[in-house]
Amino acid sequence: MAKLRHLAIACKDPDAMADFYMKAFDFKNVRTSDGPLAYGHHLSDGTIDLAILRFKSDQIGKGMDYTGLHHFGILVENVDEAQKVVEALGGTHYLDTTAQGPGGFEIKMYGPEGVLFDVAEHPWTGAEALPAQVKEAAD
Amino acid sequence: MPKLRHIAIAAEDPEAMAEFYKKAFDFKEVGRPNGYLADGVFLSDGTLNMAILKFKTDQLGKGMDYRGLHHFGVLVEDVEEFEKKLESLGAEHYIDQGQDGHQAGYFEKKFYGPEKVLFDIAEHGWAGAEPLPAPMKDAAE
Question: What is the pTM (predicted TM-score) of this model?
Answer without folding.
Answer: 0.92
